[in-house]
Amino acid sequence: xxxxxxxxxxxxxxxxxxxxVGCGGGLQTFSKHGISFKVSSDLKLEEYTVxxxxxxxxxxxxxxxxxAVLSTEKNFIxxxxxxxxxxxxxxxxxxxxxxxxxxxVDPAFRARITGDLVTQRVADFEVTFAHxxxxxxxxEAPGITAVWYCPASQRTMQLVIIxxxxxxxxxxxxxxFSCG
Length: 180
Fold this sequence. Notes:
Blueprint: H1 5-13, E1 27-32, E2 35-40, E3 45-51, E4 56-59, E5 66-71, E6 76-82, H2 88-105, E7 110-113, E8 118-122, E9 125-136, E10 139-150, E11 155-162, H3 166-176, E12 178-179
Antiparallel strand pairs: 1-2, 2-12, 3-4, 3-5, 5-6, 6-11, 7-9, 8-9, 9-10, 10-11
Helix pairs in contact: 1-2
């Protein structure tokens, strides 16, 4: 199984979007496939069917082993893939390849890593993340990408958020996250 697959899937997802994740209106809970998390109720979440073997990524029901949840604005992307835990090098490659997947979708949309990769414990997970800067026609926005492993369900998770305060938003998301 291709360990950089999560980043490759990002290319199939994200089209240029200048909107930031909303900060108002409270929280909503996603709870399905043994995954539960809370995000802003301003986000309109949609599930995506992912089948890596068949190279399928389309709007529709996500599965337990492979799936994605995106906001309709494409400023929140959460993916999962069942399999063995990524090695530290595979996590690093997954994060570092994230910007190129965005550029491959739309040349007018650029993303770049803006700092070092950081690994820290957030809630019960060892999370590796990097800050990003997104540039698109009409503006730019900060963001973050993070990868972590859920031993209980043997799934690797990747999160991409475009937000004014991306680290705070990522930490809040992961503190509310559970998998099993």
